[in-house]
Write a structure and sequence with these properties.
Blueprint lengths: L1 E3 L2 H13 L4 E6 L5 H13 L2 E6 L19 H11 L3 E3 L3 H4 L18 H4 L3 H16 L3 E5 L3 H13 L5 E5 L19 H22 L5 H13 L4 E11 L12 E10 L2 E10 L4
Parallel strand pairs: 1-4, 2-3, 2-5, 3-4, 5-6
Antiparallel strand pairs: 7-8, 8-9
This protein binds adenosine monophosphate.
Length: 285
């Protein structure tokens, strides 16, 4: 496995692989790799012949007062995980590689970024779409792999790639969970035992939502209020930032569950802000 610290070197590795006719896969990450990331890497290894994992804690997607400084950076452990998973190149640029001068060019996706996490993190998605555009331009993958765990991000990236005719395929991999149901996240390591236990109520609330819909409940308000009751049982959940039932394509709130909907939750628990979601297609249930 190679480690590329510069844009020039990762481009050289990819160029050599492409000249051999290899299909290039990219899994963009911020490091602190866990089994969620590994599932993306495994999908990439399965589908592609040459896999690049980027590790870059992207300052542009953190807002003021967010955890950019504290974000875990266990680089050597990350390299070991990548090596074991069969990655060909880890691209780990310093910030000066990615944002060499004052950045004047941003890629923003409208509408889809306004609700859900966009409400409390107004510059987050602009940071994500800009860095992903850069990574796509640098690595030029045939396929890029993202996680359903960050559902809004997945939809925004797919839309960006389609709107801007980016010549790659976007694959969304299912959310990987701990045995108790908690979605695996690099930010779970900020939690103490009690907070971790309470965090399992997030998925419990989503499962309750799924059950209610199966039982024929269709009013979003009724579903949200039942989910809120479950989250309130967890005393370390200090704030429910949102519980939303939205159209799975437009991300607009729906009053009634019909067709494909995304049910998404964001809570503050201890030092972490955690998100989770489920996608439901009532026409298929
Ligand atoms: P991050 O390092 O948090 O920026 O995440 C990098 C990629 O891994 C994103 O596409 C995430 O959606 C994905 N990811 C993070 N956690 C999980 C998980 N538990 N299951 C599946 N994908 C995940």
């Amino acid at each position: 496995m190679e480690v590329a610290r510069t844009i020039k070197s990762v481009r050289e590795f990819v160029k050599a692989a492409r000249s051999k006719g290899k299909k290039i896969g990219l899994a963009p990450t911020m490091g602190a790799l866990h089994i969620g990331h590994i599932s993306l890497i495994e999908a990439a290894v399965k589908e592609c012949d040459f896999v690049v994992v980027s590790i870059f804690v992207n300052p542009a997607q953190f807002g003021p007062g967010e955890d950019f400084q504290e974000y875990p950076r266990p680089f050597e452990a990350d390299l070991e995980i990548c090596r074991k998973a069969g990655v060909d190149v880890v691209f780990a640029p310093g910030p000066e590689q990615m944002y060499r001068t004052e950045n004047l060019t941003w890629v923003s996706v409208e509408k889809l970024t306004e609700g859900l996490c966009g409400r409390s993190r107004p510059t987050h998605f602009r940071g994500v779409t800009t860095v992903c555009t850069k990574l796509f331009n640098i690595v030029a993958p045939d396929t890029a792999f993202f996680g359903q765990k960050d559902a809004q991000q997945a939809i925004v990236i797919k839309r960006m790639a389609a709107d801007l005719n980016m010549p790659l395929e976007i694959v969304i991999c299912p959310t990987v969970r701990e045995p108790g149901g908690l979605a695996v996240s690099s930010r779970n390591q900020y939690l103490n035992e009690k907070e971790k236990k309470d965090a399992t109520f997030i998925y419990k609330s989503l499962q309750q939502c799924q059950q209610l819909i199966r039982d024929g409940v269709t009013q979003s308000d009724a579903i949200i209020s039942e989910m809120r009751k479950i989250l309130r049982q967890a005393s370390s959940i200090e704030e429910i930032e949102y519980i939303s039932v939205v159209d799975a394509e437009t991300l607009q709130d729906v009053e009634k569950v019909e067709g494909a909907v995304l049910v998404a939750v964001a809570v503050k628990i201890g030092p972490s802000r955690l998100i989770d979601n489920i996608l439901l297609d009532t026409s298929k249930e």
